[in-house]
Design brief:
homotetramer, 312 residues, Spermidine Synthase, Chain: A, domain 2, Rossmann fold, 2 domains, 7-stranded mixed beta sheet, 5-stranded antiparallel beta sheet, 10 helices, 30% strand
């Protein structure tokens, strides 16, 4: 009885009063792991996408923006990144971005869910692009916090590519002060922790300032960045945090970034280069203001988990 | 990023300007057969449902209305139904309804698609309720028209439980005068052809009158009936057509229907009984008027296949 | 930025998990009275519609079904209806239906809201069709319950054409046992109270059985009827209730109804006639079952006002 | 019958497969002028908004981003802006931004539609903030192109704040090479033409590159900028174009912009300042690439007017 086009719609609800919706062309995979429901669908608007417990993770058409924005700045700022840790990022695209840097000798990806990994390997080939089989890759199926809490060799960069801190989300405790303290101990001198920090929509700008405020409790230097992700329908927040021995991203010029990428032999970037670098760390005034006035620190005892009303 | 409730919606479009939409709780099965895409989902509103090529077929919560309305009148009117043919009806619920009648000795179900049958057997247990394994059941994987065109023993009732005649739908040629002529030859004296005849919505009342008009070209007696199917969001049309040797459904009283069902030992009906019987064959005036003024006969040469505008 | 077609949609939510949606072609009127927000819009699917406090009331394309089903049975059953009372029905279409009967000498319409009446007069001409100016019409701007509680001449028929009993709806107290007792006192011998009784959707069949049960506390004879209203996307419930001196609608034949309408000179009906009459009072088995098992009586002290979950 | 929340939704369709939707709280104004349909509504998500012929124009909550991004860079780059021309911008917010600069002695606003202006004055007070009554304001009700084609005194800045160039939009001919040539002739030496340039969504990045390419046919210097507008659900494109005697926005530092705004006494900016200035003119790599490869020049003879498919 349904129309031949658009009989099923993915509903990316920003609030009870606002949503970004996408016609589904085809359901590709439906699975239930021990940890979550894993679905993969083809959208008319943005191609193949991954959905975890009903949360859209990333879209084929513009995941390059999301993943380059998460990965590239920290590695470009790092003079000689060799050991990299990834927590989450089951699609394999964060790993793909890390492996673009020929200096990287080992990329450890800690992903809890083997069902997620198998589905990605089979159905998300443009996301991982073979990264799971790179000889520098080591995949560990384990809880990321448990992994980090054990002592071990330091990393030049640690990436947290995890779902947002919502009610019932297991990632609640991966956005807290305590967890950031744990992560800091595993960073090499001058290394960076890089995270995604939720939406920067006008009607959703609650989590990102708290994340930045919390990072600043733990790290001497915290640099937020934001970029619009079309398939998310909004600006998205990121941050890199360091011990003060790394370079200041606002002081590194476009020319210097372009030179480093060229010298290091990084190939295939579509979003990130020197001018993009200059853009993303320069936040608009109203977002800087929202960050500056934020007072809430996110802790294990009282983590962000609420759904915000999303009304102006 | 999606809200925890309702991240995926099934969109039952009535036209470009009207739709009935349902929150999907869970996708249960996704498959692609040689003939069609088969999907099974759980809806918050109506439970499990079957979707073929993006067309919602039936819903767990109220399929009893759809299937009893299709099956029961013809069998109740038939004094001693023994051999029954079903074309389509892959969920197994039409078969289930036929088998409620202890007089039935053989129910032949002709369903083209083995993938559909396997999915129904596994994921639609409340629909078939074991009917596939009844010793009276015989399942034939074949095109229904091809099956009927071969000579064979006559049937007391023939059911067409097929998708609507839309563009690109293979069922286009199962609503034509020529096909009804073929079906008539396989009916026993006094037997009934029973069909579903598409929506009777105000903004979708184009197909049903044509179906009735076409049946009347072939059969001496044609009795339309309609009933509201909640999950379809509208009245739905049916018809039984016979050679003139069967009873007139408008003349058979509620008491007589109740007596027959009781005597025959038909159990488990939730929708159909004597009073329901009296209701469904009495059409509202405006629908009778739409039928009476219809002049189009549906033929193999020019079958209904258009999508109607759905504007009043 | 919106598409040229369908930039605004009316969302008739059945529950959090189900809705019937309509593209709005044009907003015609926006007003705020002392009592409610009054809006009138043109829908692509069903033409002009009235919306009160965000609740769609009726649609140009199929309001004839709603209003004939509400009005005609009680007047057809009444041998000689002369005085009729209407509470609500601001569009004027209930009044229009009453005035079709040449026997009617006086039709008193009690409508609280003069803004509603003015908007209807100006923007809903096909609904009232001049009924406001009929010399038999008397319009009283007053609360319907207050009007009925005062003593006065009895009526041959009393119609309650009011919004559904929801949270914050003023019509909550027009569905209770106490109000029905008040109405009964104002009925002439053999007269009928006729009401609309909310949706009979599978996922919304909570109010109608309570309404019928409550009427049965007060009236010796209560006859429910239902019919599918396409623009509502569902079956709709009605009832007539009387003192036992009126005819039994199930015993009056189609031929008798047609004869009465003809003799009385009732013209212009599109939905109601003898066969329609026979249909609407014969309820499907599952709806009769839901009514029979209902135990809740609606009272002033604890009126129905909840929103039901709408999940099967 | 509708739910109490969200019975009406504004549907900002990006394509047939993607939309950004908003719950409407209240309709505030409905009018039809000689030129267009003018509607004003309150959205739960972004407050009051203006809708012209079904196209959402701007939202109370974040129009400050849209309007500051359009207006402020050109005025900040201009050493001493005195005479400013605005074409379109009926809400009055573009005018409000211009008048923040105390150097401005005359702001001429050319707006075709007096109904639009009256509605804005009455119902959009936070948008115009009294700007219509500023003694420096002169409002001309006329077609913008006709106005510019007549000779007259040159302007230090000309703003085109007009609807997107769609099918049937009168603004089609305000995005062409010929119109830009006309505008150039009315600019003072070192002055800027500043325009909005449509969406920069991934699935909607067709118009903006053509606009930039077309400006480059006419102006020696063209500087695109983009910023995410939350209520539009996407990055939005702008450009300033000049004769080569103005400053290069990429060479003017944040500190210099902040100093000028301070010295000039510009007050009340929430979005624009020095760092924001540095952000918006630095485009991400993939958008620069899309601009560079564009070859189409928009002309009066063959203006952009198509709706693009919006599929990746």
């Amino acid at each position: 009885m349904a129309d031949s086009s658009g009989y099923m719609w993915l509903w990316d609800s920003f609030s009870e009063a606002e949503a970004h919706i996408h016609a589904v062309e085809k359901l590709v995979f439906v699975g239930q792991s021990q940890y979550q429901r894993v679905e993969i669908a083809d959208l008319a608007s943005y191609g193949r996408c991954l959905i975890l417990d009903g949360e859209i993770q990333s879209h084929q058409a513009d995941e390059f923006i999301y993943h380059e924005a998460l990965v590239q700045p920290a590695l470009a700022l790092c003079p000689d990144p060799r050991r990299v840790l990834l927590i989450g990022g089951g699609e394999g695209a964060t790993l793909r971005e890390v492996l673009r840097h020929p200096t990287v000798e080992e990329a450890v990806m800690v992903e809890l869910d083997p069902v997620m990994l198998e589905a990605a390997r089979e159905y998300l080939p443009t996301f991982h692009a073979g990264a799971f089989d790179d000889p520098r890759t080591r995949i560990v199926c384990e809880d990321g916090r448990a992994y980090l809490e054990r002592p071990g060799e330091p990393f030049d960069a640690i990436y947290l590519d995890i779902t947002n801190p919502r009610i019932d989300s297991p990632s609640q405790l991966l956005f807290t002060r305590e967890f950031y303290q744990t992560a800091r101990k595993r960073l090499a001198r001058g290394g960076w922790l890089a995270i995604q920090g939720d939406s920067c929509r006008f009607t959703g700008l609650e989590t990102f300032p708290v994340v930045i405020r919390t990072l600043r409790e733990v790290f001497p230097k915290v640099h937020p960045s934001i970029i619009c992700i079309p398939s998310y329908g909004s600006d998205w927040g990121y941050a890199i945090a360091g011990d003060g021995h790394g370079a200041d991203p606002l002081a590194v010029t476009a020319a210097e970034i372009d030179r480093r990428l060229e010298e290091r032999g990084v190939r295939g970037l579509r979003f990130y280069d020197g001018m993009t670098h200059e853009r993303i760390f320069r936040l608009p005034k109203h977002i800087r203001a929202a960050i500056e006035k934020e007072e809430r620190v996110n802790t294990d005892a009282d983590p962000i988990r609420e759904r915000f009303p999303g009304r102006w």
